[in-house]
Write a structure and sequence with these properties.
33% helix
Length: 82
Amino acid sequence: MSDQPVEKLRIGSVTATIWCNTSDKGRTYYTITILRAYRTKDGWKDTASFRPRDLPVITQLTDLASRRIIELQAASETEAAA
């Protein structure tokens, strides 16, 4: 996984982060991580644990991330063909 994300998509306290990776064979592929932010007395923290009310948001974010990854892949293929 690269050090910097390609993009972060956020709805409320839930964020989907898109990462660009390269396989051992040099193939580019994308992954996502999904986290929910919450506040404690010590400040903001992230968790991969979700409440039932977060599920519709996760559905929206995975749809947005999927569409964005398709765009990124198409752009990569166009650049590779040029």
